[in-house]
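Exam prep: given the inputs below (a chain plus adenosine-5'-triphosphate), describe the expected output before reading on.
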Amino acid sequence: MSEQINSITGTSDAPLLSVTDLGVAYDGGRIPVLSGVSFSLAAGRTLGVVGESGCGKSTLAQALVQLLPAGAVRTGGRIDFNGRELTALPETALRDIRGKDIAMILQDPLSSLNPLLRIGTQIAEVSQRHLKLPRRSAWDRARELLASVRLSEPAQRLREYPHQLSGGMRQRVAGAIALAASPKLLIADEPTTALDPTVQVQYLRLLKGLQREHGFSMVFITHDLGVVANICDEVAVMYAGRIVELGTTADIFKTPAHPYTRALLDSLPRIGERAGSLRAISGQPPRPGQVTGGCAFAPRCPHVMPKCREASPTLLASVAADLSLDSSVASSVASSPVPSSPASTATTRARRSLAACWLTQVPAEAHA
Ligand SMILES: Nc1ncnc2c1ncn2[C@@H]1O[C@H](COP(=O)(O)OP(=O)(O)OP(=O)(O)O)[C@@H](O)[C@H]1O
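Solution:
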């Protein structure tokens, strides 16, 4: 599976991060919240993880650093990072990796910053701990990091406390802390959601610039496809705890295959529309534990077929769905071992992405 996914990203290098068939469940393992999640990410690339609220994005972020909340357990799968299987490491080894090789930026920096400690102390302690810098050098580095996240008067900011800064400034401090030990992977969980739109744009530019400079990979979690378009090389679209479409940002935006991806794109405001006029997708996503068999999106899908309610499709090679195809043509695309005539037409639009949808799947040989 990961070999196939790598071929989508267009990178031949061994991935920095590889997630295979990851499952997580709450309530001591009884309520599945992530199922069969697989993807890989090469060095220096950014994967956007996108989906509506409650689809499992933050749970995935927590699972990546092996910091699931109480009551949640990994039910299967593995996570490989930088040549090591994270899911097999003891907690002591994980503690060395978190904050050093893998850093996180969360939506609300107040929840990650200590209100009682000066900004400088909080940044310096990361490089003291993980890079073993002496205190003086760690403070010098903290000042440089504050300058690199474009915080004005860095020397003065070092002596301030989180409450003395605006939300945008605090998020820059969170960025400086995340970069303090030169991580290979940055996981950013909705880092711009709480910021004003203009500050959001500045912050995304900053992150992209820092990534170019330092070369880290990013998993960027967001419900906002507009943000994805700005910052991500690849996109994983999540629905009800599964990845339903995975491909390059260009493919996902130009030729979305999964009806849910289309619905997300259709919900974006169009040029000329009033700001805030986001069209909601009708219906609600299922809550964890409510998914019973079949495709979880079937109850909301305008292209649902009987098969969709019977069995859950896995993430397989897809064509850019011509959703005007009637369902008989669509099912021939899905089930024919050698593409028949209408399917051949469809395979001319075959592209390098995966989708978990009966309507859009084609046999692997059609991609040759
Ligand atoms: N500690 C918990 N115990 C039980 N269920 C939980 C817990 N934390 C989250 N959940 C449920 O797991 C599902 C996935 O939550 P998660 O926070 O990962 O989704 P999300 O996509 O990040 O949503 P949002 O965008 O709103 O943050 C949700 O239905 C949520 O209610």
